[in-house]
Amino acid sequence: MNSDSGEKIRPQKYKLEDLGWDDSLASAFEKYGGSYVPGRVSSRHKTVFDVITCRGSVQAGASGALHRIGKFPAVGDFVVLLPVPEAGTYTIVDILPRKTVFSRGVPGKDGSDQVIAANIDTVFIVTAIGPDFNSRRIERYLAIVHSSGAKPVILINKADLSEDPDSVIDSLSLSASGVPVIAISALMQSGLSQLEQFLSPGTTVALIGSSGVGKSTLINALLKKEVQATGGNRESDGKGRHKTTVRQLFILDNGALVIDNPGLREVGPGTSGSGMSEAFHDIIELAAGCRFSDCRHENEPGCAVRKAVEDGVLPQERLDNYLRLSRELEFQQEKAEIGSARLERKRWKGISKAARDIGELKKR
Ligand SMILES: Nc1nc2c(ncn2[C@@H]2O[C@H](COP(=O)(O)OP(=O)(O)OP(=O)(O)O)[C@@H](O)[C@H]2O)c(=O)[nH]1
Ligand SMILES: [Mg+2]
Ligand SMILES: [Zn+2]
Fold it and tell me: Can you give the residue ranges of the CP-type G domain (predicted)?
């Protein structure tokens, strides 16, 4: 489905310049000798990275030295690869200096790497006409994009669902002064020509936004090909699913690079996440009494937090506020979560295998 990037990026076609390579990267790479190969990380699958090189797309693991210093490649990184001919694989031995870093603003749960993507020129903040539309959330996205060094562009997708998409644009422009706001329909492929100005060859654009706003639909429209599965979340029946689970970089026919991301539920200011446990000490303490350790305090049975609301001990608004900010932290921990979901499935296949995976996760 989503992960056979080897096929999708048509390996032979690309030169380093096509990937956004420039003089400063070339000079950073100079110190490496003949057998090293530069490349750009297009996807990460737990501990294995897909890297696009002039030899095509290869799979690589990070070196022990990178593990030891806790430095991990992110999608969009330019990396230095050392071929391991015996194994027919590659090892990532270094990460070349990043031009921009799109990170979550606070350290991850385990203090590990918090970089979502690197070397992003422009971020398309994708929202959609309908229930997702929320100016406050867009402002939060803007805050994290601004702090990344990338240029934000706000896309209002599903314009086909509105009689008057312009009025929606007008309502936003005020709060997002100076930031381009563009209405499109990824599904109907309308308005897409307005995006061309941001998609010049060698430019890297990342798409972010809630699940179901149409990021992958837009990726497919831009690639003129069904590379990504779509059909994001089903908020209405409460069984919201993030369709896209792996962050992935694609190359458009014109040479622009686009990154599809898993949906984000909500984002926050990106700096105050570590203050959560202090600010919501009461809820954290109550949560220790929930039946499930991963209780989200939504509909789970045996939820001590909801019970406290029912008993009038905890104000509903306080819980709402907490849940909203927790989703923001989820944004931070998304990568770790994807890892543990896999782990959960594997647990049923064999305890010993799961144990090895935990070891691997810890190394990350
Ligand atoms: N009406 C309309 N529907 C759209 C449009 N773009 C996407 N959709 C629909 O919205 C749903 C979600 O689209 P996706 O592209 O999977 O959304 P996503 O943002 O990639 O979702 P995640 O991968 O979960 O983050 C699908 O059913 C799409 O067909 C649009 O422009 N108009
Ligand atoms: Mg998607
Ligand atoms: Zn609970």
Answer: 112-267
Q: Is the CB of residue 127 below 6 angstroms from any atom belonging to ligand 1?
A: no
CA of 260 to the centre of ligand 2 (A): 7
Q: What separation in Å is there between the alpha carbon of 95 and the centre of ligand 3?
A: 41
Instruction: Return the CATH number of 273-363, one of 1.10.40.50, 3.40.50.10320, 3.40.50.410, 1.20.58.410.
Output: 1.10.40.50
Provide mean pLDDT across the span 19-44.
92
Closest CA to 273 of 316, 336, 210, 330: 330
Gap between the Cα atoms of 280 and 275, Å rounded: 9
What φ, ψ does residue 278 adopt, rounded to 5°? -75, -45
Mutate to test the pocket of ligand 1, among 187, 236, 338 (most ligand atoms within 8 A of CB): 187
Q: Does domain 5-96 have CATH number 2.40.50.140?
A: yes
Domain edges within the chain: 5-96, 102-260, 273-363
215-221: average pLDDT: 96
Q: Is 157 in the pocket of ligand 1 (CB under 6 A)?
A: yes
Is the predicted pLDDT of residue 272 greater than 70, yes or no? no
Average pLDDT over residues 233-257: 74
Give 312's contacts (C-beta < 8 A, 6+ positions apart): none
CA of 129 to the centre of ligand 1 (A): 11
The Å distance, Cα 245 to ligand 2 centre, comes to 8
Question: Cβ neighbours of residue 43 under 8 Å, at least 6 residues apart?
Answer: 3, 5, 49, 50, 75, 246, 247, 248, 249
The closest residue, in CA terms, to atom 1 on ligand 1 is 158
